[in-house]
Every structure is written in C-alpha cells, then in structure tokens.
Amino acid sequence: MAVNDRIGYWNKTRGLMFTMLALWVFFGFIVHMFVTSLNEIVILGFPLGFYMAAQGSLIAFVVMLFWFARKQNAIDEEFGVAED
After folding, report:
1. Contact 22, 1 (CB under 8 A)
2. Cα–Cα distance for residue pair 25/31, rounded to 1 Å
3. 46 three-class SS
4. pLDDT for residue 49 is more than 90
5. How does DSSP assign the chain, residue by residue?
6. Is a pLDDT exceeding 90 seen at residue 54?
7. Which pLDDT score, from 0 to 100, does residue 3 have?
8. I need a labelling partner for 51 at 20 to 30 A (CA). Which of 33, 41, 60, 70 fits?
C-alpha cells in the first residue's frame, strides 16, 4: 500500500473509531445521567429512563457493533486490504 493510501486508510479508520467512541460515551454515560428526566416519558407503560438503563443501551451497543464492522469492512475494501 502506498504512503498516501496508508494515510487515507488510517484517517478514515480513526474517524470511524472516534465516531464509535462518541456514541459509546453517549449511550453508556450521557443517557444515564438524564435518567430521572427521561422517566417522565412513558413508552408502552415503561419509563424511558428505566428502559434505556435496562435494555436500550445494550441494544444500542449491539447495533453499534454490527454497524462498525460493516463500515470498517467497507473502508478495508476501498483501500484493498479486506480479508477474503
């Protein structure tokens, strides 16, 4: 891989990593800091804060995992370093 390709590859990978880190902080910490405010919103009989603490964040993390894998695979294919 040429130097310019290597720099472009790592710039895109780093951007994806920082995006994932920001989403992780949001769903792991920020949402839980506002749990009492979110409890005022009720969805299907459950307070939103309770739902986000019990299951919502876990679901978000699983979705983020698959989204990250798909985006990283696309970056790998773009720069010709994908696994077969």
Report:
1. no
2. 9
3. strand
4. no
5. --HHHHHHHHHHHHHHHHHHHHHHHIIIIIHHHTHHHHTTSEETTEEHHHHIIIIIHHHHHHHHHHHHHHHHHHHHHHTT----
6. no
7. 79
8. 70
Q: Would the pLDDT of 56 be above 90?
A: no
Q: Is 64 left (phi over 0), alpha (psi -120 to 50) or beta?
A: alpha
Q: Is 23 helix (H, G, I), strand (E, B) or coil?
A: helix
Contact 16, 82 (CB under 8 A): no
Q: Which residues contact 51 (CB under 8 A, 6 or more apart)?
A: 43
**For residue 13, which phi and psi values (nearest 5 degrees)?**
-65, -40
pTM metric for this prediction: 0.81
Determine the average pLDDT of the residues in 53-77: 93
Please tell me the predicted confidence (pLDDT) of residue 83: 84
The domain limits of the chain are: 3-78
